Amino acid sequence: MKKIFFNINKIIIGLLLVAGLLASCKKLIEIPTNPPSFVSQQEEFADSASTISAVAGVYTYNPGNGFAYSDGNLTICTALSADELTTSISSDAQQFYTYTLTPLNGRVTSNLWPLPYQSIFQVNSVLSGVANNSALSAALQKQITGEMEVVRALYYFNLVNMFGGVPLVTTTNYAVTARLPRATTAAIYAQIKADLTDAEKKLTAAYPSSGHIRPNLYTAVALLAKVDLYLGNWQSAYNEANSVINSGLYSVANVPLNGVFLDGSNEAIWQLPANGLYSVYSDAANFLPQYSGATPNYLVTPFLLNAFEAGDQRLQNWIGSTSVNNQTLYYANKYKNLDPTVTTEDQMVLRLGEVYLIRAEAAAQLNNLTQALADVNTIRARAGLAPSTATSQAAVLSAVMHERQVELFCEWGNRWFDLKRTGTAAAVLGAEKTGFTANAELYPVPQAQIQLDNLLTQNPGY
């Protein structure tokens, strides 16, 4: 996969709810009358080349000035909140594990809330720049609009699952966005579905650039399947997942476990090029021991380790171990590359394994147990396991959730979100850890944002 496919250029813009400016990587055009770090929106979208440069910036591996989740904090924090990881590196991180978060928590105030909003503003800027732009072909406007709608939907999907209702920002007009109340959860999901539904109409099956960096039609459909699953729209989720699986563009059976997260993986539906300072992708730097004998920053919990069946090759391939002071410590090992000069891995956003499990759960809810078991067994077979012996609907659903736990651990908050959406968080986490309450299912709104915007309200319990 080509790692640098366009010259990256950004507009320096202010953002609702976020203090500071977005930094510019490189000016596109030298305009002496402008400040040296500023390129106007009209110049930014003056032609197809400059427009594509702005689009490329949305996918840049640079949290706060590119793809918001490049730092891996969404995975870390939600895995700590669930039952996947534990840590002793900082009080801010420990608060997620112990359910003692405050509105001043550094991970919330510096990462989980502001970075998606900075990126949403960037997306909205591109959408505004291409809309009714006579300098761009209709086909290019259509393609870029669909892409940006998928990206925006991803941000709001994660925001609503972490915080509940959040401010809904779909414009770059600061006069409109300077003070906004929280939209309802239903309103956020309605926007997500509207974006993805429109993106379906605009995108084609062909990816618009090398690799699977920029969303295609099936990226939109796969994310829509996940959204419909969360909303309990079983038939829609089934149909959408079925469409992705039957597209023939992706594969699970032909991708070994140690190849899932590699650059160019045939399982990847959406896979962004990563270029970190200390590893290719931040998950490797976050989870792997930095040197022989070092204690990993985040350890896999006994709850996750005990979830793997005997002979499950995911335990062997995706969980690592190290010995420190004669004690064996376990860590997440899906991303294995700590050498930033060797670009072997990419940031996996959506993959076919998850889509199989979406179809499996939807099928089970529709009482299509044959299909549900077939999908579960597809995932189990790659892990070296025998077919599931589940027979009843309840048993099949339990088998699906088990596969989600051991297949999707430490990926995009899946376990944390699953426990919440299925109403099992209190029973599972209450039995495993202390301190869990219903209020812990939502993270606090940063106190600084409430002080800036008196229309914002805090989540219960904070």
UniProtKB/TrEMBL annotation:
Give the main location: membrane
| The organism's place on the tree of life at top rank | Bacteria
Q: Sorted alphabetically, which InterPro entries does this protein's record hold?
A: SusD-like_N, SusD_RagB_dom, TPR-like_helical_dom_sf
Pfam families of this UniProt entry? SusD-like_3 (PF14322), SusD_RagB (PF07980)
Q: Which stretches make up the SusD-like N-terminal domain?
A: 82-229
What is its subcellular localisation? Cell outer membrane
Protein name, as recorded: RagB/SusD domain-containing protein
RagB/SusD domain mapped to chain residues:
324-462
User: To which species is this protein native?
Assistant: Mucilaginibacter frigoritolerans
An example Gene Ontology cellular component term from the record?
A: cell outer membrane
What's this protein's family per the entry? Belongs to the SusD family.
**UniProt keyword list:** Cell outer membrane, Membrane, Signal
Q: Which SUPFAM superfamilies match?
A: TPR-like (SSF48452)
